Amino acid sequence: MRSIILVGGKGTRLRPLTYETPKQMLPLVGVAMIECVLSDLARHGVTDAVLALGYLPNRFIEAYPSNTIAGVGVTYAVEPEPLDTAGAIRFAAQFGGFDETFLVVNGDVVSDLDVSALVARHRDRAAEATIALHTVADPSGFGVVSTDEGGRVLAFVEKPAPGEAPSNQINAGYYVMEPSVLNAIPAGVRVNVEREVFPRLAETKTLFARADEAYWLDTGTPHAYLQANVDILKGRRSERHGAVVVDGSWRHPNATIDPSALIINSAVDADCVVGSGVVLENAVLLPRAVIQSDCEVRSSIIGPSAIIGPGSRLGPTCVVGAKEHVAAASHLSGDVRLGGV
Ligand code: GTP
């Protein structure tokens, strides 16, 4: 089945990391998120994908010049301006010449969802679109869906006020669609699939859903991005995407790590330097990050080529942008972001 992967968002919640690197090019335990997403889809028989690009498109195009990512053939549909999720689906589908049932995936979701079962549900119900659902404790930040027993969507409410959600089942960001859905999306303007397309399809009773409680995570916030890394390290995913995890952590072979450093549930990427007496816990160090001696870094993300001065204590939850320099003996905790445009 042909697919569209939405990867054109600005990733504002992951700033400052996303000023330089689009969200789906950030690594999960050393492997770019887009590679993780596509290799998961490949296991469900997806062989070709159109990447719906808008923000920093060249970071993808230059990284994968052979038009293959994780064994999936890819083409690049670059929007001239951000079209939002439904506008992007229409643009990418036209670019790819889609004229049969297709799959759409939010490129910042990592999951073990059963795509084959979702497609089967879609065909069985002769739906116009079918959404994968996942149960969460607090649905207020998501598209919340209620269905009848046959899976027909009765209501689709995007980000309901607390206490007003019709269920705890949320839109998991995986959709099977018929080309007819595209006809209702105006061309060349911003259209949001969750706010404009799904509520309308629900009204016409042609929208279906399938609940799936397999592993699922939207990686869009610093907390969730850290969680996605830790879940791979702890073996909570069915796939580690080739990462060699030793004692619960992943250390890139090119990283220089002092033997006295204590590394717990952390990912240390290529060319990082970790000094003596350092403690890392639930931390992600992106390539070339330097943690000088006697630092403690907990539940924090250290961006590419950032330097953390000796004796500093970071986290939870600090996000240090690319090339930032944190002064010696700094103490930072709470939702701290360091680094500008
Ligand atoms: P935030 O700014 O942090 O909310 O992140 P985001 O820009 O990624 O937005 P969001 O998480 O709501 O987007 C869901 C998915 O749709 C992500 O995979 C985005 O990359 C993608 N997306 C959002 N807006 C656009 C757009 O205008 N064009 C394209 N091609 N993709 C988009």
Would you give an account of this structure?
By secondary structure, this protein is α/β, with parallel strands linked by helices. It folds into two domains: 2-218, Spore Coat Polysaccharide Biosynthesis Protein SpsA, Chain A (Alpha-Beta Complex); 246-338, UDP N-Acetylglucosamine Acyltransferase, domain 1, CATH 2.160.10.10. The chain has helices spanning 17-20, 33-42, 57-63, 84-96, 115-124, 180-183, 193-203, 222-233, and strands at 2-6, 27-28, 31-32, 48-53, 68-69, 72-78, 102-106, 109-111, 129-135, 143-147, 153-158, 169-177, 207-211, 216-218, 245-246, 249-251, 256-257, 262-264, 267-268, 273-274, 279-281, 284-285, 290-291, 296-298, 301-302, 307-308, 313-314, 318-320, 325-326, 331-332, 336-338. The strands form seven sheets. The protein has an eight-stranded mixed beta sheet with strand order 5-6-4-1-7-12-9-13, sandwiched between helices. A seven-stranded mixed beta sheet has the order 15-16-19-22-25-28-31. It has a five-stranded parallel beta sheet with strand order 17-20-23-26-29, with no helix packed on it. The longest helix has 13 residues, at 84-96. The radius of gyration is 21 Å and the shape is elongated. The two termini are 39 Å apart. It binds guanosine-5'-triphosphate. Guanosine-5'-triphosphate (GTP) is lined by residues 6-13, 23, 52-54, 79, 82-85, 88, 106-108, 220. Guanosine-5'-triphosphate binds at residues 6-13, 23, 52-54, 79, 82-85, 88, 106-108, 220.
